[in-house]
Structures are given as structure tokens and as C-alpha cells.
Specification:
mainly beta; 4-stranded antiparallel beta sheet; 11 strands; 0% helix
């Protein structure tokens, strides 16, 4: 499966942004899909994930502010981000794996997009 993220950009503190991840080559309904973020010199951090049954998981740092969703018909996964904080700044990646017990662990994911930058200021 190939993944392409979009929707990143610069946003003011407290603002909102929605990221999209379009998949091709296979249907996302078969996969657990995750969003991860990374800043320089830091490990890639799991932000949110949604499995093939539609069950979502969130990092504590984004609970109540971020929402992950998917549209199987459009083969697209979304990450709605609100009440953005400075520490939300980073490169956001979409990733996929057939199945995993730890959906926020980046090492468990096999397919990755190129990322989209989010800057909060």
C-alpha cells in the first residue's frame, strides 16, 4: 500500500487543522492505520491509530483534542486536530500495518507516507 499525506501547514496556537492520508494499492479497511509525528532529534511518537474494526487509540497528549477517522470508500484516513499547542509542531506521518497489538508503536508499522509538516506558532 502507498500512502500520501496532505493538509499540513502553519497554524496559530489554539487553532485547528485536518490532515489527510490517501492510500493506493490496497484498501485501508484491511489495515490498522496510524498517525505519528516527529521533531528533529526526537523519536517518532504515536499520535492516534484506528484499526480495521474502527477502534481508535490516542496518545494521552492529544486525547480530547485530536480525532482520527477513516473513509473506506475514499480510502482515506483523517486526523482532525484542534486546540493546537506549540508541542504539536512536527512532521506528521501516516502509516499502515495489517495488525498489531500496540497501535501507537511506530516500530510495528510496515508502510509509511512521506509526511506533512505541521507548525504551530
Amino acid at each position: 500500500v502507498q500512502l500520501v499525506e496532505s493538509g499540513g501547514g502553519s497554524v496559530q496556537l489554539g487553532g485547528s487543522l485536518t490532515l489527510s492520508c490517501v492510500a493506493s494499492g490496497d484498501t485501508i479497511g484491511r489495515y490498522c492505520m496510524g498517525w505519528f509525528r516527529q521533531i528533529p532529534d526526537r523519536e517518532r511518537e504515536g499520535v492516534a491509530a484506528i484499526d480495521s474494526d474502527g477502534v481508535s487509540t490516542y496518545a494521552d497528549s492529544v486525547k480530547g483534542r485530536f480525532t482520527i477517522s477513516k473513509d473506506n470508500a475514499k480510502n482515506t484516513v483523517y486526523l482532525q486536530m484542534s486546540s493546537l499547542k506549540l508541542e504539536d509542531t512536527g512532521m506528521y506521518y501516516c502509516a499502515a500495518v495489517w495488525w498489531t497489538t500496540d497501535t501507537l508503536r511506530s516500530e510495528n508499522y510496515k508502510w509509511w507516507g512521506q509526511g506533512t509538516q505541521v507548525t504551530v506558532s
